[in-house]
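Entry for PBG complex. Fields follow.
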Amino acid sequence: MGFPERRMRRLRRTAALRRLVAETRLGVADLAAPLFVREGISEPQPIATLPGVVQHTVDSLVAEAKHLVSLGVPALVLFGVPSSKDDVGSGASDPDGIVQVALRELRSAIGDDLVLVPDLCLDEYTDHGHCGVLDRRGGVDNDTTLERYADVALAQAAAGADLVAPSGMMDGQVATVRRALDAAGHHEVGILAYSAKYASALYGPFRDAVDVKIAGGGDRRGYQQDPSNLRESLAELRLDVAEGADIVMVKPALTSLDVVAAARRELDVPVAAYQVSGEYAMICAAAERGMLDKEAVVLETLGAMKRAGADVVLTYFAREVAELLGGGEAPPR
Ligand code: PBG
């Protein structure tokens, strides 16, 4: 008859059949919501390049967090926008810095119902916009930066973080943070490591969201990875696990699905994928112009991250997706 014995289309005929045999599912429990909190504002501020995302006040952040809890979203990742910046990013480790203030408020308002994950980096807090402390020649000094990261980790842990998320791509950052946390008795605070993080043009809108301009039109290629490389990502991932990472993350997500798949294959810790600001902006912009169906593309891209092997997906669509799924799984299509 010219057909293969096995008719593949049989199991695709109805939505119920497709649902029965789906190999992966996207659920609300997979989601983590990145949120921004800004010091010194009395109303939430829109972000031009991230439609629908805002810089929160502490109060509006707490309200949003409660809403996420009610939807069943298990985690939020928090970025701070300080009202003043300096050369070493002092605000990042200040006990009264915006993220520490926000963490304490979140914890007292929602208890343990949401996993609180502050991003651990300096770029939002430095006047030069780099993720670390500069040396005399203007390069980012690895080991001086590690000392700052240890201080930031301690401030975040004391303010109530469940997991801290070092994102600066300094060598040894996970080991440094683990050692500092343990020495201070914060054995229960875990590390979600940005392990494989490429120097990507897809972070553009995020830098608007946190008011970061890199001095002299510079970039982060001296510490973030070259997008050409896969083996290097595996080395980074393995190092972070060896240094004590509890969860590893790959970023950006859609352009790194091969890395997510490799991480899932090679490692036994949970793997997270970060659908970054540029991925969000591309979908929103195309949808606004009527070029594609936003809901369908969001579910398809997040579903692809799950299929690649992600256990956790960070996405600015977290609330929308949770509302859409109504606490269940992606609807049959
Ligand atoms: C660094 C950090 C960045 C992002 C998350 N953590 C910016 C960068 O590396 O330049 C980007 C996230 C996004 O684009 O959504 N603190």
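NOTE: The pocket of PBG is lined by residues 119, 121, 123, 131, 167, 203, 206, 220, 276-277 (CB under 6 Å).
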